[in-house]
Design brief:
- This protein is α/β, with parallel strands linked by helices.
- It has a six-stranded parallel β-sheet, sandwiched between helices.
- β3, α3 and β4 form a beta-alpha-beta unit.
- α8 crosses α9.
- The relative contact order is 0.11.
Length: 209
């Protein structure tokens, strides 16, 4: 039996996944979590083979938090189940050590198949992720600008696009405010813009946020 924990903000997601797999002979939903701070306790108290995690989970501020979970729990594999842009977030998520990235538009049948594959040690990208990665390779230079962005830069850009100030972002990411300012300058340079408004607009145009 594959023991699965669902970490998502929305009860309807918990209910939908749990209902779909309730009679499955191979997959058991053993835990439902609505905040990142609850994950470590769940992993300590229950045997969890696979953690299904939304990148927008409350309390999850950075992809580095996911890396920490994987480092501290080597027997648990992580599947990202998110509505965030695959072509932007899947490559970096895979680099962080997760086993699969599944967009929320996928069928639960597909999620089930991926859970099975991941439980056997496979690294899996959904068909839509593969298509998006293929499209990236065919994009022109300006459209590939975001590929130069690091995990941290993408995270800072997301928060800037949400209207957060440097000091707010520094608290969320547990970084010095000067460090956030440095990331902001790098973003302006890499995306070839001169102000925050243009930075956010370009990020939206390239579907980075």
């Amino acid at each position: 039996m594959i023991n699965v924990c669902i970490a998502d903000n929305f009860p309807v997601v918990h209910f939908g996944i749990k209902s779909y797999f309730k009679d499955n002979s191979d997959i058991s939903i053993v835990s439902n979590i609505g905040n990142f701070s609850m994950i470590q306790d769940a992993l300590k108290t229950k045997k969890i083979d696979i953690l299904i995690l939304d990148l927008e989970l409350n309390g999850l501020s950075s992809i580095f938090d996911v890396k920490a979970i994987l480092k501290n729990n080597p027997n648990t594999k992580v599947i990202i189940f998110s509505g965030l842009s695959e072509q932007i977030y899947a490559p970096n998520a895979i680099k962080s050590g997760i086993s699969a990235y599944v967009h929320k538009s996928e069928k639960l049948e597909t999620l089930g198949t991926i859970i099975q594959k991941v439980s056997h040690g496979d690294i899996v990208l959904s068909d839509s992720v593969k298509k998006n990665l293929a499209l990236i390779g065919r994009q022109n230079k300006s459209e590939r600008l975001y590929r130069k962005l690091s995990n941290r830069e993408i995270e800072v850009l997301r928060y800037l696009s949400d209207g957060k100030k440097n000091n707010e972002i520094s608290k969320i990411l547990h970084l010095n405010e000067k460090t956030i300012s440095t990331y902001k300058l790098r973003l302006l340079t890499k995306l070839n813009v001169t102000n925050l408004v243009d930075l956010v607009n370009k990020a939206k145009k390239l579907e980075i946020v």
